[in-house]
Amino acid sequence: QKASSPRLYERLATKTRDVVNEAYEIVDVYYGTNRQPSGKGGLDNYYSGKRGDFDLGIVSVSVPRNNRSFGEVNRPDLFKLEFRPDPDRHIMLWDITPLGAPVFYERLRGAINRSDRKEALVYIHGFKNTFDDAARRTAQLAYDLDIDGAPILYSWPSGGTLLSYVKDGNEVNNVRALRDFEDFLQRIVETSGAEKINVIAHSMGNRFLTEALDGIVEKRRSRGDAVAPIFDQVVFAAPDVDRERFADLMGRASGWAGRFTLYTSANDLALELSQRINAYPRAGDAAPPLVMTGLDTIDASAAPADPMGHTYFASGALGDIQAVLWHGLGPDQRCVLQKESTLERLWRFNKNRCDDLAFRTAMFNLRRLGPTEAMTNARQNLDAARADRNTKDIRHWEAVIDQIGEALTRG
User: Considering the entire predicted model, what is its pTM?
Assistant: First the structure.
């Protein structure tokens, strides 16, 4: 059954993300889920928090071009007298279309083939997420990370509330769900046609990712495949995974991705609670951070974060993730990070090292314009700022030029 908004506009079929309005973009998120349909038919509760058969489909989500901070998933706010969703201001679901496997993978491959960069971003959400929460977050990431290809969501049956933590923990250990996700990820690798597949897992979602990586790698090893990257960039964001188990799985996965990056924080209250419940340290806790060969560990304790300190990856650390996914830059090439002198593969966020906005501008211009034009554009903007005697803009474009130069020199 298909659920649609009556305001869903006809979209062009030539892009994965199509412009239907100057105020917002529609992002088509390709999804796989073990959630059971609720039977209610509404967009915000189409899938329940109960375990069901594996479903595939496309959920269309609008993302405002303006009226939204970088990394924000904004919804109606009663304190602002916002009583209903407005696509000009809020991230909204527009359409959910379940699909059979042959049609789903055909459409996924078609979307990627029509893109210039042929990218796929796979996102696995964490605990306390409904299906619509996860779809909104995936669309936000796809928009802010400028994905040119297809964003792909795996949504497992989280209960969607703080009180469902224990239930969520049982879901991420469900053998059938783990097998379904591994098969889903493997099918994406084999059939999507993507030239670059990046993966981001958050919180409990990392339990699916680490186990799936282990299964995929083990199958390749058993048939004698040489160690080579299956994925481009793999990001473990605030993983709510037993630290020893994570280290064990990562030890076997080393070399099977272009780069593995672990984001941790000492201010993550959700992981602090998880450690108390589970009685063992979590991989995403930075007190102390997990450091090992084959893994870049980022201590994001100083990065801007939500009150729980758990979703910093999608906001405060997102500029750094842009540099990783877009350009494959190592930690020593990203000015927002500072090397921890006592540990070989540990870097910490240091907001005083460089201006975050200038860093993001440099990374964006490098992606959109290429090295030569990005530097030319920055110098032209600096000349204009000097002509206007605009001190703020002068400092900004000087910093942008420095960051472009640093990325190119060390690259």
Answer: 0.92
